[in-house]
Amino acid sequence: MHDFYSINRNALIIRPTRAMIDWANAVFPEDPIDYDEMEQHDEQDIFLLPDFDSIEETEEWVQENCEDFLAHVLEDWCMDKTAWPSPLDWALFQRFFEYSIESSVVDTMDEDYDEDAEEDFEEFDEEEGFGDFDFEDN
Fold first, then answer.
1. Which of 26, 66, 121, 129 is deepest in the core (most CB within 10 A)?
2. What domain range is 85 assigned to?
């Protein structure tokens, strides 16, 4: 049996709305996305947030930092910042995302999990991986 443990963090879960997909389709009309056919599971982003005393304090913090969340997600969709909507504000956040704030975050892995992953990465031999790969040409 796994020993789950709660971490002292909140989580913000965001999912694109039809308005965001309409924007993406306007930017990339050659490869349109059908909002109604989007997968539910892989189209959400989850951000770990500081632990606050109330959901209201957490939402206030999210509102104060909404530009950062918008920029992070928009950059995943389109690297050309000139194509981004403006301004990156709370109104746009609310228009582009369905969101929820969760006050209980439970880790299903033991505390050593992240440390083990870091050790595996440190052992990665560059010559076995992308050492000769030229990112500029690809």
1. 66
2. 7-124
Q: Are 9 and 49 in contact (CB under 8 A)?
A: yes
Q: Which of 3-7, 16-20, 87-91, 126-130 has the lowest mean pLDDT?
A: 126-130
Q: Each residue of 116-132: pLDDT tens digit?
A: 656 665 655 555 555 55
DSSP string of 70-112?
A: HHHHHHHH-S-GGGS-S--SHHHHHHHEEEEEES-EEESS-TT
Q: Distance between CA atoms of 133 and 138, rounded to whole angstroms?
A: 9
Residue 134 lies in a domain: no
Look over the chain and give the mean of its residue pLDDT values, rounded to a whole number: 85
Please state, in angstroms and rounded to a whole number, the distance separating the CA atoms of residues 114 and 100.
26
Give the up-direction half-sphere exposure of residue 97: CA atoms within 13 A in the CB hemisphere. Answer: 28
How does DSSP assign 54-70, residue by residue? Answer: SHHHHHHHHHHTHHHHH
| Counted domains in the chain | 1
